[in-house]
Amino acid sequence: MVDHIFFSVGHLPPIHIIPEYLLLDILAYLEPAPTVNFQEVEREFHLISAESFEWLSNSWYGHPFNETKQREYYSKVLFSLVPSSSKSEIIEYLTRLLSHPRVHTFEQGEEIMDMISCLIAKYCGSAVSGGIMRNFLLSTKNKSVQVPIKIKELGIANDNIGWKTWGASYPFAQRVIEDDTLFNLIPTKLDETIKILELGSGTGLVGVSIVKKLQMKQLSNWRLYLTDLPEIVGNLRENIILNNVNINDNVLCEALDWQIPSEFKSKTNINKFDYVVVCDCLYSPEHPNLVANAIDEFLSEHGLLYIELPLREKYEDERNNLWDLLKKKGLKKIIEKEDQGFDDYGETKYVFQCYERTTLT
């Protein structure tokens, strides 16, 4: 834990005299606290560059640099920029940097402009920016193996909620890694290719976790179809590749409109799947019917449905409607567990359910 020294962006030297190397240091210190599994983790302290220390020691006499000429102290001062400054102050400072002519004259001017733009995006949030990178860390039940996953979000624009990672994806992804029973049909039928379909894959957190788990178990007789609307699939595919998952015969990213399943069936030549996975799929009164019909369309007889939903009070009617529809379509609930998790809005409760297809409708 680094001692906090009050030093906001308003105390920095004027932009027109800041050398390039010092600006690079300042931008590094302005990185916000990273998040892992939707929760902030402590920022890592690092020393200021030798060049920046020398310049601040000899060419700038502003408070508090004129008090103690020590590199570690100067580093602590700049490290305090984030906790000492409001989000709006930091955004305003970065915006001034972006438009200042001096920055454009630097040798690494283009890279610096990109860094500034990226920082502004992080402070503005993915909903109004060009997107962010999220970090997740999943672990096996005994914590002996950890699985890091990076997810790129494009933010929410034009109602494209699939560009954001929603909270229910995390507890389900964690369950995938720690629960050896979820896909236990695969090792019992090594002479068959077990087919898994995820409806509404979004940014791909759940899909990546499934692939990582099956690779950990050294299984190859499976094929995973990650699906969403056409405008979502591009970023989904990027996230699969970002996590060193080969888009090959085992993992496919395809467009699937729940209202027109025939197009997906025609392209893949597959009618039924052994497993169907759905997370956080209810955002309007129309969704229960759409989701239930898609599940009914694709889940094979005796197939398993895994579903994870947030227990949002606002969507209680939609949840109950979906559960009633699943029952009417011949799906029997065999497991239900409550999960605790987090999203951008804080701690949230979720429900995990497993259904078995007992009859085809």
Descriptive overview:
One of its GO terms (molecular function) is protein-lysine N-methyltransferase activity. This is Protein-lysine N-methyltransferase EFM2. It holds the Pfam family Methyltransf_16. The chain has about 350 residues and is an alpha/beta fold. It has 2 domains: about 10-125, no CATH class; about 140-355, Vaccinia Virus protein VP39 (Rossmann fold). Helices cover about 35% and strands about 25% of the residues. The chain has helices spanning about 20-30, 50-60, 70-80, 80-85, 85-100, 100-105, 110-125, 170-180, 205-215, 230-240, 260-270, 285-300, 315-330, and strands spanning about 35, 40, 130-140, 145-155, 195-200, 220-230, 250-255, 275-280, 300-310, 330-345, 345-355. The strands form 3 sheets. The protein has a 7-stranded mixed beta sheet with strand order 7-6-5-8-9-11-10, sandwiched between helices. A two-stranded antiparallel ribbon has the order 1-2. A two-stranded antiparallel sheet has the order 3-4. Helix 12 (about 285-300) links the parallel strand 8 and strand 9 (about 300-310). Helix 8 runs parallel beside helix 9 (about 205-215) and helix 12 runs parallel beside helix 13. The longest helix has 16 residues, at about 110-125.
